[in-house]
Amino acid sequence: MTHTDTLNKILAMKGKTAIYWDMDGTLAEFDRISNYPKDFYINKRPINAILNAAKLLSESGNIDHFVLSKLPPESEYITFAEAERTKSVWLDKWTPFIPKQNRIFTTDDTIMENGNYFGKYDFFKTILENNNDYDNIVFIDDDIRHIRGCEVLEKEFNNFTIINTLELVD
Ligand SMILES: [Mg+2]
After folding, report:
1. pLDDT at site 73
2. What's residue 131's pLDDT?
3. 138, β-bridge pairs
4. How far is the CA of 27 from the centre of ligand 1 (A)?
5. pLDDT for res 65
6. From ligand 1's centre to the CA of 24, what distance in Å?
7. Where are the domains of the chain?
8. Of 116, 100, 73, nearest in space to 125 by CA
9. pTM assigned to the model
């Protein structure tokens, strides 16, 4: 799908929608590194096409926006607290239209037998099984291990939609 088709698909959803935005590789550039320099997250390059889409969608009154971001494993270079603090500084600057209380940081690095991540699957499974607040739940992510991990939920719950970040870039 193109950027415009994807925006229209989301805007056409009936009722109240929640969008969960991935951060690294979706709102911000993704770097594959293991030794995190100081202020690594603060200095990440914003992905303007995606930020503009998020801002546009935030102007629709029927959509609540959340950031759902997995923190890197703790190491000698970065702690969960420092990753969360610096990611928050970045989000303060680049996503002021998403309420601070709508930031969710996961620390689960479990990989399932099929090679997919467990953490975001587990998060959405809980949300979907207990959700009374939203007619539609949209998950936007660039990592195929999160996307594939959640696909079983997309088949099970017809109010759950996964969008690959690339579908929001023309
Ligand atoms: Mg990502």
Report:
1. 92
2. 80
3. 19, 161
4. 8
5. 98
6. 4
7. 3-168
8. 116
9. 0.95
Ramachandran angles phi, psi of 99, nearest 5°: -55, 140
Distance (Å) from CA 158 to ligand 1 centroid: 24
Nearest to 103 by CA among 89, 117, 116: 89
- CA–CA separation, 166 and 63 (whole Å): 21
77 CA distance to ligand 1 centroid (A)? 20
Intra-chain end-to-end CA distance of the chain, in Å: 9
pLDDT along the chain (170 residues), means of 10: 92 97 96 86 95 95 96 94 97 97 95 92 96 93 96 97 94
- Predicted pLDDT of residue 24: 96
Give one word for 96, left, alpha or beta, with left for phi > 0 and alpha for psi -120 to 50: alpha
| CATH code linked to domain 3-168 | 3.40.50.1000
| C-alpha to C-alpha distances, 31 to 25, 34, 49, 153, nearest whole angstrom | 8, 9, 18, 28
